[in-house]
Amino acid sequence: MSETEFDLVIVGGGPGGYVAAIRAAQLGMKVACVEKRGRLGGTCLNVGCIPSKALLQSSELYHEACHGFDDHGIEVKPKLNLDSMLGRKAKIVDELTNGIEFLFKKNKVTYVKGAGKIISASQVDVVDGEDKGKSLTTKRIMIATGSESTPLPGIEVDEKQIVTSTGALELSSVPKHMIVIGGGVIGLELGSVWKRLGAEVTVVEFLDRIVPNMDGEVSKVFQRTLKKQGIKFKMKSKVTGASKTAKEVTLTVEPAASGDAEEMKADVVLVCIGRRPYVDGLGLEELGVERDERGFIKVGSDYQTNVAGIYAIGDCTPGPMLAHKAEDEGIVAAEMMAGQKPHINYDAIPGVVYTFPEVADVGASEEKLKEAGIEYKVGKFNFMANSRAKANGYRDGFVKLLADKKTDKLLGAHIIGPAAGELIHELTTIIEFGGSAEDVARICHAHPTFSEAVREAAMATQDGAIHA
Ligand code: FAD
Ligand code: NAD
Q1: What is the rounded CA–CA span in Å between residue 312 and residue 276?
Q2: Helix, strand, coil: what percent of the chain each, to 5?
Q3: Residue 441 pLDDT more than 80?
Q4: 59 C-alpha to ligand 1 centroid (Å)
Q5: Which residue minimizes the CA distance to atom 34 of ligand 2?
Q6: Which CATH superfamily is domain 348-460 in?
């Protein structure tokens, strides 16, 4: 094979594309990954998961030092240095993206720098960037071009005063008032960051609940908890226009249904009403690659599009827009190309909101089970009664398990509380293995740990938790 001939060319070097590239190379394929950003890691590493988690961690420590240390008998006077906080975040991103370049070299994946355009099922041309002019010949193509922030009509993003998540990760000073349009995952995570650093934060949400896909009870408690932290909510409202001066943005806000418009002012507005698939410049129309009504690329169970030899995975395909979903699809698609028979259990993909407390879930919500007519039982345990939570000074939140009423099979798990994003994996494992709530209740859990709350919730689905 020549330097420009491959078994697989992947367009997009995010968690879907770069993980698929490494897996395919491990399985013996000659792989190229075309990425136009100038750095590997996609949205997730550069402007998504990682920088947001770095700022969530830093801002949580700052907030804790300002408000939580007294209780532990520690007296300090913290001072915010936003430049170094942002610098730390940038360094983490650099190290991780460079780490992927190293992994590419180690696995002999060819990193092609530039924008890829698919000419046919066996040819990708680089039409812009450092490697512009290269033409790659390949047996298969995988599209992993991800997603972008959904624009809100009437609101023009400048990434300074009116920002998407990308701008909200780079603000040069703490806003006095930040309005967040959309009470979803991005709004609540990044709203939390700036609230902790001193901004007044108001979330304007179209619906009557935040993170609408979350279990309803958890969503209510989550909102109440964030309110206690000082985040304000304007529910059932929509933003219909914006005007700005050098200092201020004025939003026109209307009730979601009907009613009088009002004005709201802020120095920074974060628009985060969802993300949409990104396939610009790929040439999909000319190739006849089918997309659904929301623009996602349609794929079969082998991740192949309607055009033989062209595959798609990750955010540009239907399903939850999560890095680990993209990664899993990348791995499974590569393994299928190599003749293996893996599968993804889409009912066992956990979701985590990295606020404080964290919120995590896997499997069905109560609403979903009701909708499906499945009879279920609920087991709940509050962190207030968990000794580790008490020792660490946490009170808010609970573990809630949903199990089939007849078979006891675990169907859903919902946690709001400390380390929820870690605790959820025990329950993900149980769901993946088709286990029951009793299985969880019978597993020995170390004491004192937050994990004991998981076991107690499982006991509550049987004949009762011990400490409730
Ligand atoms: P992407 O990561 O978007 O990567 C696609 C890549 O393709 C991009 O780098 C792009 O430059 C490149 N590309 C596009 N077109 C071309 C072309 N023609 N040629 C060459 N390259 C091209 N998910 C989580 O699971 N956990 C989190 O905590 C989390 N936090 C997030 C926080 C924020 C602020 C945001 C915005 C998202 C977050 N996500 C999180 C979602 C996560 O980032 C995405 O689900 C994930 O990045 C999707 O991976 P992907 O590989 O499909 O696409
Ligand atoms: P989202 O879908 O999570 O939330 C969007 C919110 O905006 C919803 O509550 C919706 O009702 C509301 N909304 C929609 N239109 C509106 C309007 N006109 N006015 C007011 N509110 C409106 O979307 P997001 O927060 O932008 O995040 C995008 C994606 O990124 C998500 O799918 C998520 O999976 C991913 N993400 C994941 C994580 C994580 O896993 N921790 C973190 C950040 C982002």
Answers
A1: 15
A2: 35, 25, 40
A3: yes
A4: 23
A5: 321
A6: FAD/NAD-linked reductase, C-terminal dimerisation domain (3.30.390.30)
Q: How many angstroms is it from 246 CA to the middle of ligand 2? A: 28
pLDDT in tens, 406-421: 999 999 999 999 999 9
Report the candidate in 153, 112, 97 with the shortest Cα–Cα distance to residue 8: 112
Q: Which atom of ligand 1 is nearest to the CA of 117?
A: 18
pTM of the model: 0.98
Q: For residue 324, give the ligand 1 atom closest to its CA.
A: 25
Q: Boundaries of CATH 3.50.50.60 in the chain?
A: 5-149+276-344, 162-273
Question: Separation of 421 CA from ligand 1 center, angstroms?
Answer: 20
Type of residue numbered 227: K
113 lines ligand 1 (CB under 6 A): no
Query: Averaged over 192-202, what is the pLDDT?
Result: 98
- Give the pLDDT of residue 3: 82
Fold (topology level) of 162-273: FAD/NAD(P)-binding domain (3.50.50)
Q: Which of 202, 200, 226, 222 has the alpha carbon at shortest distance from 211? A: 222
CA–CA dist 369, 404 (Å, integer)? 9
The alpha carbon of 94 is separated from its chain's Cα centroid by a whole number of angstroms, namely 20
Q: 428 CB less than 6 Å from ligand 1?
A: no
Which residue from 248, 240, 269 is spatially nearest to 178, judged by alpha carbons?
A: 269
Q: At what angle do helices 82-106 and 49-67 cross, to 10 degrees?
A: 150
Which entry of 72, 343, 447, 467 is annotated as an active-site residue? 447
The Cα–Cα gap between 16 and 324 comes to 8
* Residues lining ligand 2, Cβ inside 6 A: 152, 181-187, 189, 204-207, 212, 238-239, 272-275, 320-322, 351-354
Q: Is there a catalytic annotation at residue 447?
A: yes
- Residue 268 in contact with residue 282, Cβ under 8 Å? no
| Alpha carbon nearest to ligand 1 atom 7, residue | 12
Q: How many angstroms does the Cα of residue 273 sit away from the middle of ligand 2?
A: 5
Topology given in CATH for the domain delimited by 5-149+276-344: FAD/NAD(P)-binding domain (3.50.50)
Chain mean position to CA 318: 15
